[in-house]
Amino acid sequence: MKKSDFYYDLPTELIAQNPLEKRDNSRLLHIDKNSGKLEHKHFSDVLDFLSEGDCLILNNTRVLPARLYGIKEETGAKVEFLLLNQKGDDVWETITGPGRRAKKGAKFIFGDGLLKSEIIEVLPNGNRIAKFYYEGNFFNVLDKIGQMPLPHYITETLLDNERYQTVYSKELGSAAAPTAGLHFTDELLEKIKAKGVGIGYVTLHVGLGTFRPVKTDNIEEHKMHSEHYWLPKETAQLINNTKNKNKKVFAVGTTCCRTLESVACKLGKIEECEDWTDIFIYPGYKFKCIDALITNFHLPESTLIMLVSAFCGYDNTMNAYKTAVDEKYRFFSFGDSMIIS
Prior knowledge:
The chain folds into two domains: 3-63 and 160-340, QueA-like (3-Layer(aba) Sandwich), CATH 3.40.1780.10; 67-145, Beta Barrel (Thrombin, subunit H). Strand 5 (67-72) and strand 6 (78-88) form a beta hairpin. By secondary structure, the protein is an alpha/beta fold. The strands form three sheets. Strands 2-1-17-16-14-3-12-13-15 form a nine-stranded mixed beta sheet. A six-stranded antiparallel beta barrel has the order 5-6-7-10-9-8. Strands 4-11 form a two-stranded parallel sheet. The protein has helices at 138-145, 186-194, 233-244, 254-267, 303-312, 314-326; strands at 27-31, 38-42, 55-59, 61-63, 67-72, 78-88, 91-97, 107-110, 115-122, 128-134, 171-174, 198-204, 227-231, 249-252, 273-277, 292-296, 337-340.
C-alpha cells in the first residue's frame, strides 16, 4: 500500500490544543470492526463495551519534562535541549537547537544554574551526547525547570504538566504520552474493576520517533524507530487467564498494542518479557494477542493510522475518520477517542 492511501483532510480547527477539564468527558466513537457500524458515545461509556472477565491493558510510562531552555555558558546565547535517551549516569542523548552552538566541549546553563551540561559527543545523525551536572536528584531538578515535550501541532501553553500524564503513570522515561490513556480517571478505573474487568500494566517508553513521518511512498519500505518495553509476569498471567476464559483483551493505545504484539511475535506466546521493539503494524498483519483497541485519532499518513487500519480494516478506518471530521470530533493528543471491538 502507498502512504497516500492513508491521507485524510483535517481542518486545523479540529486539532485539540488543550485537554478537556474532565478527562472522561471526551467523545468516544465506537467501531464494530466486523460490520463497520459506528456509534457516537462519550468516554465514560467505555464501561458498556467491557464485560466481566475481560482485561484492560494500560501503558504506565511517565513522560519526562524533557524540554530544557538555557544559555551557552561562554556567550549567553539561547539554546534548547530535548532529552531523548539516558546513556549512563547523568549522560543523555539529546536534540539541541541551534545545533551550531552545541559543538563538542560546549557548556550550557539551565534554570539559573540548577542544571549545567557539557557536550561530550556529536553523533552522525546530528544528536548530541551531553553530560549533566547538578545537586540533589536529577529528576527533581527536571520537574522544577523542564517543560513537557508536547507535539509540534500543539501551540498552546500547557498550564498543568499532569494533564499530559495518565492518572496511572509511574515509570519515568517517555518523550511523549500514551495519549489513549489520558481519558481515564481514577473513578472510571474503579468502576471498571468493580465490573469484574482485570486491569494490567505494561511499560513502553514512547520515543519521539512516534511522530516521525513516513517518507517512503511504499509503506513497507519505512523503517520504524525502536522503543523499550517491559511486560511483567502478573500482566502476562492476567492476559493468559483472560484468553483461557475466551474473554477479550483490550489494549489501551497503540503503545500497548505494539508491546503485546511484539511479545507474541517474539515468543509465540504471552509471558514476562523485556526488550526493544521496532515492530511496524500495517494492513495485512495478523494480530496474535489483542481483541479490542482503544485509541485516539492519529495524523494522516502516520504509522499509527496504519496500525489502526490493520486492526479495524482499511475501509472501516477511513470511513470512521471521515465521519469524525464531519461530526467535528477533536483530534490528536488532547482530542477524542475511539474504541474498536
